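Question:
Now give any protein.
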Amino acid sequence: MRADRLMHLLMLLQRHRRAKASWLAEQLEVSERTVLRDMDALSAAGVPVYTEQGRGGGCVLMDGFTTSASGLTPAEAQALFAWTAREASDQLGLGGALSSALAKIAATAPSQAVARAESLGGVVLADRRTWFAAAEAVPLLPQLREAVIGGRRVRMTYTSATATSPGTRTVDPIGIVDHASRWYLVAEHRRQVRSYRVSRIGGVTVLDAPSTPVDDRPLTVIWEELRARFSDRLRPVAVTLLVSQDRVGVLRRLVEMQVASGSAIEVDPPAAPGGAETWRVTVRQSEVMAAVAVLFAPEVTVLEPASMVDQIRLAARRALEHYPG
């Protein structure tokens, strides 16, 4: 384990050249004293490293020194070769670069580690598609990636979910998010942070002007806030249902698609043999649950809340009025 840690330390120094012992200790999950001892070990092995005391000091690797040794463990090689987002890499326009990088790693990594990593590809499959959803075309994603990495503003045509025709927006990109196989551009438009579904972007022009978003928080923090904001708009509702035994299978599949985050279907068994099950679940959209209740009545009955029962009655009346006879 110490050999792996020494290699990790060397790789960190090769990348940064100079780093605080406290930061290295955090990355390696050891104490600062251990880092200093490891620096002595590297120096004794002929690696040109040294430590500097005082403010601005730290652990230093002399300029010009590089090593091509990968030091990959079998588990690390598997993590790289079985990376589950290769489809995402292709969509970003980096599929060829990933294949090339893996080939270079395979040329320097231990043969046993590479063999085990490649065998993992035959027994692990990552399918990022959601059920009943068609794959989205995102041909403009590579251009957006270059704009984000290059820190450039973007002028784009975009058709929102509620619009009938595309509009033009000039935005300051912050990042790109792959959420359940759907890509989103996170950007500021008129100083407001928004998310734009990449499949709805019709055209992109990367401008020479630099991207200068006001919000400088990490992308992960911004995205979590956008997710929470969207979830709040859906207004999850706690529902109690009676479900007929012969409809349990199909109803479970439909209801699970609407289960709110952090919730699950709680089932009480029938009071008598052959009777209905009682389900308690929090759903994301009351309208969808009401539609399911109309379609599957009387095999499913909504007991609570009363507001959803009223919603179901109204939906049924509107349907009968729309389809008379």
